[in-house]
Amino acid sequence: AQKVTQAQTEISVVEKEDVTLDCVYETRDTTYYLFWYKQPPSGELVFLIRRNSFDEQNEISGRYSWNFQKSTSSFNFTITASQVVDSAVYFCALSGTTGANSKLTFGKGITLSVRP
Amino acid sequence: DAGVTQSPTHLIKTRGQQVTLRCSPKSGHDTVSWYQQALGQGPQFIFQYYEEEERQRGNFPDRFSGHQFPNYSSELNVNALLLGDSALYLCASSLVGRGDEQYFGPGTRLTVT
Fold it and tell me: Within its chain, how far is the Cα of B106 from the centroid?
C-alpha cells in the first residue's frame, strides 16, 4: 500500500522568507512518481512539480526547488522568497508508473500562509 | 485547448437522495479518475475509467458508481447519500499510460443536509 505523510499541518511566514514543506512517503513499488500540488481557496488542484523515482537529481524551477532523497523516502519542496500569492494548501502525492497503478495517493496537506 | 470541466459547481442534497456529477476530460485525454476531498483532508481516490470500464477502484462502497461515455466524458453517481459524503469531488484526466500527467478540474462541492 502507498502512503504519504505530511507532518506539518500549518506554516506561517513573512513575505520574502524561504519555506520548506516536508513529505515522507511509503511504497512497495520499485518505480514511482512523486508530485507536489497547490490548492488555492478556489479549490482547483494546480500541478507544481513531478519527479521520477529513478532520478534523484534535485532541481530548481524559478522560486521552486525540491530535495528528493530515496534513502530517507523524502520529497521536500522549497519556495524561495515567498509571496502572498503562495498562500494555499500544498499536497504531496505519489503514484505508480503503470497505467493500472496510476492513482494518486495524497498526503493531508500543509496550509501555508504568507503574511505581507 | 479546453481543460477539464466539471458540473455542477455546487450542489445541495438531502440524506438518502442520489446525485450525479459530470466531468469532461481535457481534449485528447481518454482516462478519467475521480477523487473525494473531505474538508481539511487530502483527495482520496474513488475510481478510474478507461475505455468505458472501471480500471481501478479505491476503498469506497458500492454506493459510489461511475460511467464513461464514448466521448471519454464521465459521470460519478452516489446513491443513498450520507452526511459524510459532503465533500469536494475532483475529476482528473490523463492519457492512458501517462498517469504522471493528470490534470484536475475545478471540482464539484457537494453538501448533504
Answer: 11
Closest CB from B41, B106, B107 relative to A108: B41
| Cβ contact, residue pair A95, B99, below 8 Å | yes
Q: Please write the tens of the pLDDT for every residue from A71-88.
A: 999 999 999 999 999 999
Cα distances (Å, whole numbers) of residue A96 to A42, A70, B20: 28, 15, 29
pLDDT tens by residue, A52-68 = 888 777 777 789 999 99
Contact: A104, B88; criterion CB under 8 Å: no
Interchain pair A106, B44: CB under 8 A: yes
Q: Which of B56, B90, B106 sits opposite A103 (nearest CB)?
A: B56
The set of cell numbers assigned to A92 is 504531496
DSSP E strands, B1-113: 5-7, 10-13, 19-24, 31-37, 44-50, 53-57, 64-68, 74-78, 87-94, 103-104, 108-112
Among A25-39, A42-56, B59-73, the range scoring the smallest mean pLDDT is: A42-56
End-to-end CA gap in chain A: 41
